[in-house]
Design goal:
CATH class of the largest domain: Mainly Alpha
CATH superfamily of the largest domain: 2-methylcitrate dehydratase PrpD
Strand order of the largest sheet: 6-5-7-8
Shape: globular
Helix content: 40-55%
Structural class: alpha+beta
Amino acid sequence: MTGDITAALAQWVADMRYETLPEAVRREARRSFVNFIGCALGGANHEAVTATAATLDEFSGPRHATVIGRRERLDPLGAAFVNCMSSAVHTFDDTHLKSILHAGGPVSAASCAVTERQIVAGKELLAALAIGIEVACRVGNMLCVAPARANISVFMTGVAGGIGAAAAAARLMALGAEGIQRAIGIAVAQSAGVREMHGTMCSSFVPGNASRAGLFAALLAARGLTTAPRSLEGPKGLGNVFASPANPDAVLDRLGTEYEILFNTYKPYPCGIAIHPAIDAALEIVAQHHPDPTRIEHIEVIVHPVGTQLTGRPDPADSLQAQVSIPHWVAASFLRHTAGIAEGSDACVRDPKVIGLRSRVRVVSNEGTQPPEASMSVTMADGAILRSHVQYCRGSHERPLTDHELDDKFLTQAIPVLGDRPSRDLLTRCWNVEASVDLRPLLIASAPR
């Protein structure tokens, strides 16, 4: 790799202004913020989050920061960890499909923690989110987009998410280009994540750790900690370590004129993104044919190879393993006619009817199938075959969630935690974040009273 990629990227982060961001980018930053707060509320009381929050509570520094959806307060590093972990624990977070990166959680949680250390206006927060997500996605592209090749077992959120969080936090802290460059390098020093963690509590630990690492990087950079100046492109830098080869041109190519946040997507279902086409196919057959699940002999679903590699687990034992199981979500969709958080619960996973039907689901990998696509055939006891083909699943770049659908997603997760009126008030404040002069009241409103 040649050139000073890290330095040029840091200079861009320092120079960008909210007013120069295209309106489409600002809108997507708002949507990312709404999605993040909603998902953090939805996961706030998960047992993995509770265990992590209790551990961090024992060692917390000054309790300046809100823990979204919970009553305790933590130091900013702890809050960034827990809030990001909450947003990821139901696998309901955003996805940058080119890199299979969930950037919104790490960047948003770290940025929110900064807003409770200093006064930050809504426009500055949105600029930081847009820019931090852009940085994370472009680093992910460097490792994943052809001609780059990264091992599919690398958990890109842990590798690149903290780098975007560091850039956003360092920008909010006004560290300047040189300080942002060092923050990126310190975040690179902490990059880690393997997909073996999928199906366990560590699946959400990885993004939580990325958010904390990014904020920690910015705080250390502010204190003058030094790092390698070419942390992304150096001979032993991130690109050459995590990809064979890397695609360094992806970091700066059309930077500031084309935005990766516009390729960020929001999930309609709380499970791995590769499962979503199969869910849509199942729900389409349910809506059109109303099949009796007890009369289903066999279900075959054809998906992109990534679907079987990442989410082909045939017999999940619990809700965490079900997050990466196409057979589970297909069976649950046929039996319950929906696919929400309840369908990913332990109770649903262990339901004998679900277990029986998912044993009759066969997942087939097909190189000719695109990632947002699935084909399904259902053979009934009388020999009838019901078919569905989904070209673009809900929540894909080609078929994105509307603002109204994001509202529904937010409220479904928030109301059980905050109640109806506080949830609706908070949703309005999130959409209107641009007008805020101080983010702290909004974040305080995200915790139960």
